[in-house]
Amino acid sequence: MSRESEEQRAADELPAYAERVLDVAELIPPGRVMTYGDIAEWLEEGGPRQVGRVMALYGGAVPWWRVVRADGALLPGSELRALDHYRAEGTPLREAPHSAEGHLPRIDMRRARWDGVEGAGGTEGADAAAG
To answer: pTM, whole model, 2 decimals?
Structure first.
């Protein structure tokens, strides 16, 4: 095999860390989210920046909108696409005050955050605890 084809094969393969990050992103139930830091903590490897880099490079193949910033702000440049997904999945949102620029809501992190342990059926555990 030539050096060029070896380099191309290596570039085409998903790095192991990236694969693990994407696997976790796929586990997040509809209507729930994890932060970049949550995923790094769950994997016990890397940090929020490393997870963010993986999502920026490879996240298009998984439910990327379920991996969010810790403050619940929508991903700049993808706000409206993400918002469509959140509304379709019933992700808890906090409406923005009219004084907020763009009037975009934020994710209600207290209600939407998934710990990776609850049943993958969605928000039943949170609803039962609240009721």
So the answer is: 0.77
